[in-house]
Amino acid sequence: MIFAFVKSIPSWAKNKYVLTIIAFIVWISFFDRNDLYSQYSYRKQLEKLEVDKQYYLAEIEKNKIDMKELMSDPEHLEKYAREHYLMKRDNEEIFLIEEVAEVQK
């Protein structure tokens, strides 16, 4: 009975080299530290990081342009200080008006 089962297995499947290669591929694909799922998640993380990198590079360029404008134009520097740091002149008062978003029911 067992002998008939062994005879039904193709000869290439009995080859020890083929079995070793198949076992190696299964090990690398599913059980290794760098298996297929890990490679997929690393690839997604890399894509996200590349998008973040492009965003930050664009922000750096924008900040360099703002810095150049602030260093060269005193009026622009005053406008920036008033808008971002709420600075005022001695004879002025600042009133902050916050808009409240409406909640839909």
Question: Could you describe the 3D structure shown?
Answer:
The chain has 105 residues and is mainly alpha-helical. It has two domains: 1-32, no CATH class; 40-86. Helix content is 72%, strand content 0%. The protein contains five helices and no strands. It is elongated.
Q: How many domain regions?
A: 2
Tell me about the largest β-sheet: none
- Give the class from helix and strand content and strand pairing: mainly alpha
Rounded to the nearest angstrom, the radius of gyration is 33 Å
**Quick one: overall form?**
elongated
User: What is the helix fraction of residues, given as a range?
Assistant: over 70%
Weakly predicted, low-confidence segments:
none
Q: SSE order, as H and E? A: HHHHH
Report how far the terminal alpha carbons are from each other.
74 Å
**Strand proportion:** under 5%
Number of helices: 5
Query: Roughly what is the average pLDDT, rounded to an integer?
Result: 87
List keywords for this structure.
72% helix; 105 residues; 2 domains; mainly alpha; 5 helices
Describe the structure concisely for a colleague.
The protein has 105 residues and is an all-alpha fold. The protein has helices spanning 2-8, 11-14, 16-31, 36-72, 74-85. It is elongated.
Present the secondary structure layout.
Blueprint lengths: L1 H7 L2 H4 L1 H16 L4 H37 L1 H12 L20
Helix pairs in contact: 4-5
